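Continuing the batch. This is chain 6 of the set; chains 1 through 5 are on the previous pages. Same settings as before, nothing changed between runs. Recording input and output for traceability.
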Amino acid sequence: MYHPYKIVSKLEIDKNGGCFLNPRRVELLLLIRERGSILAASKELRMSYQQAWTIIK
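Output for chain 6:
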């Protein structure tokens, strides 16, 4: 049976009115764990090292 629709869900966790956890941060943290460095993860995600630090602060 063909289903033309696909259900997609994204989770964000807010803390004190700001975003604490979102898919982008999770992806970055997982890559840091896999690659062993913030620099390697940030390069793979095509973001600057500074931007990666800002995301994980």
